[in-house]
Amino acid sequence: MRELIKSPMNYIGGKYKLLPQILDLFPSKINMFYDVFGGGANLSLNVNSEHVYYNDIVPYVAEVLNGMKGINTEECLGKIKEIINTYELSKTNIEGFKRLRDDYNKGRKNWLTFYTLMCYSFNNQYRFNSSHEYNSSFGYHKSCFSNVTEQKIKKVIERLDKIDIVFDNKDFSRIKLIGKACRNA
């Protein structure tokens, strides 16, 4: 069995720890895998399938994963580190975190900014208000972009480059199951 890939997002209900038990229940060869409640994509990243359809109703998460597919690893890490340096983010700089969060909410909404905010948020998790403004609190002395996080990103980008995966963000009841390859969907 190959090494399991862990999502670079701390996602409530993540299946990473259960992957050995879950994956043992799947057939050895799958043509099309539908991960309709994709979350942090632990199943999508690790299932042995020719094609993967990832879905999560939260568009921000699907955007992060889709952004990591096809991006050069060093470019991705460089952009994240540029955001960290620009805002002087650290485990203790709440003002830098608040500035980044404010800038994000005022229009700098892209997957790299969202992901970086999440890294410095309480328990590395995200939250939005009813106006879709990012409102997670700062992860004082706990949360940051670490070497462990960087390694996760490297492995995820490498894996995404090798699999045929489509990212979507629909209500699960609106998903139409298809029998053809994701590239042709």
How is this structure best described in words?
This protein has helices at residues 19-25, 42-46, 59-68, 73-86, 94-105, 111-119, 147-162; strands at 30-35, 49-55, 164-168. By secondary structure, it is mainly alpha-helical. It has a three-stranded parallel β-sheet with strand order 1-2-3. It has seven helices and three strands, in the order αβαβαααααβ.
Protein topology:
Blueprint: H1 19-25, E1 30-35, H2 42-46, E2 49-55, H3 59-68, H4 73-86, H5 94-105, H6 111-119, H7 147-162, E3 164-168
Give the beta-strand count: 3
Shape: globular
Strand content: 5-15%
Assign the structural class, choosing from mainly alpha, mainly beta, alpha/beta, alpha+beta, or little secondary structure: mainly alpha
Helices and strands, in order, run as HEHEHHHHHE
Task: Quote the average pLDDT.
Answer: 91
Radius of gyration: 17 Å
List keywords for this structure.
185 residues; mainly alpha; 39% helix; globular
Short account of what is shown:
By secondary structure, the chain is mainly alpha-helical.
